[in-house]
Amino acid sequence: MGLSMERQRILIVEDSPTMRQLLTFALRRLKNVDIVEAQDGMDGLRKVSSDHFDLALIDINMPVMDGLKLISLIRSEESLSDIPIVVVTTEGAKEDRERALSLGANEYLTKPIQANRVLSVAKGLLKRD
Amino acid sequence: MSSSRNDLFSHGEEFLQLFKRGAEFTKELLVENERLRGTLANLEQEQADATRTPEDWEKYREELVTRLQDLEQEYESVRVRLHQVEEENKHFASRYIEVEEENNNLANLYVASYQLHSTLDLDEVLKIILEIVINLVGAEVFAVYLLNGDSGELGVAACEGAESTEFPDCSQAGGILVEALEQAAPVCADPAQATSLDRPIVCIPLIVQERPIGLIAVFGLLQQKEGFTALDHELFSVLGGHASTALLAARLYSQSERKLNTIQGFIDLLTK
Hints:
The structure holds two protein chains of two kinds. Chain A is of the alpha/beta class. Chain A has five helices and five strands.
């Protein structure tokens, strides 16, 4: 009798529907994942606080609450501090990257994204082969 | 009485010790026996070999040589087959990478066209065009010009990276815009030449049934975007085709909604 792999949950926090759809397309290639979308930082905070996630992909420039604020709130909450976070953003400057990583992001990807790069980063953080 | 009991125990102990020594000795004898059997077998084999005649040895040598040749042939064929499999493997690996890239590109194109046709609201369509150009192409400064039906002039309908008043009139931007409209196809310049808002580096005409309805002009790319890829050129074609029809459909829907509301208003007046 084989053991079925436990399903993992990924949260995408991105205000652009186009980007949400693209990231979902890329991540659906992973088996046994459930993908949840949030359309801004506040929506993302509500969702991450009310449910368990194994990975979060977060944009920086969003209305209501930006991604950096969301990341610092997630990292300040003990029950959420272990969630791996990938920033997906248009901000390509070195200081933007350093700032996000210093706030607790695990990876920093710049747009336009390569779907296989997103997939490879997600696999690494979800600890899959 | 107790002394006879003690004597009995001590005799028992002595007997047990003697028995154990006997068992150990027997074990050693068995091991030695096995060793001697092996030695005897080797010696018998050597004796058998020594009694072979030179013809027997020659025959044995030929058998070995033949066997060696067979093994060498087999090794060679396995080596050739391994080389073929390695080549096939390399071919499959590079083909896998190509297919994966094609798949990624198709996903981008699918998402772009899906989003463009997902709404009939003009503002939403413009917003989606902006999203596609920022997130999928990687442009930082660009404008969507639409043809004004009354004046027949192109005006900025949506933009990113600068205020709408900062973008040039089409007559000022000249060159590449005119070329794109005449060719009815996207025209690209060297992204390294993106220095100001005077000269767009990409111009994508928006044409429906050979009639221009607008264009997208890109004046600057995101810092991390080094140049245009094959996917970008595909996206320009998608934008040129699908964005045009999406914009036209949204405009016509908006006009028909207004007319419908007007007619409905008249009907309501007449029926009151």
